[in-house]
User: Fold this.
Amino acid sequence: MDRFVYISSADNEKVRLYRRLGSERKLRRKEKLFTAEGARLVSDAAAEGAGIRYILLTESAIERYNDTAEMLAAKYGEKKIYLISEDLAAALSDTQMPQGIFAVCENPALDKSEVYGKIKHGGRYLILDNIQDPGNMGTMLRTADACGIDAVITCGCCDIYNPKTVRSAMGSLMRVDIIDDSFENAVLSFKNADIPVFAAVINNGTSLTECDFSGGAAVVIGNEGNGISEEHCSICSERLTIKMNGTINSLNAAMAAGIIMWELSK
Assistant:
């Protein structure tokens, strides 16, 4: 590992870029780059073929995560890996206990035609409408990955490359087909492909367990606080509701999405 260039200055261009990508959504979109932190996330990025621009490692991380460090060294070599100090790692980290492994990765977002062109009979899809919490977004993407959801369409949502979303998704960001689109176009695209679009609402919808997903379905999950607007509900094919016991009438958006995706995957 001695062959890697050592970076000690916070003014180094690679350090500055990593820090700015973590906090500036406009820059992430402009450069089509995002950050990944931690042994697991950086390993997943490497395993999934994400375009890693460069990696920053501390000497303690090399010792603690030797297998990961050796894999990264073999795959990317001295041209893409740099050593940094523990102080720099602490300044860059988005967590309280940094592992000392950071990467700048290329945005793997797909073109809309790549997703809509593959809509299939029996396919399972998720439309996220105005989801604003990065943690919820990451959890939904991770669950979509686990349940084999064919694609996720985000409409007016928080940035999926926000560091909190990337961390919460635990690598699923690089395995799930995700595109951003307007709500109206997303719904129309599925309807044109004869895939019904279900709006998940608190009440007055068909019970989730009674919905027919046999021919495929796209389910809309709405904003954490306000749900799906009536305007958006009105252009969907049908409304569905998770029937609950007692007096409770709503669930966390990510929890509701998880229950619905489990039903979709059956």
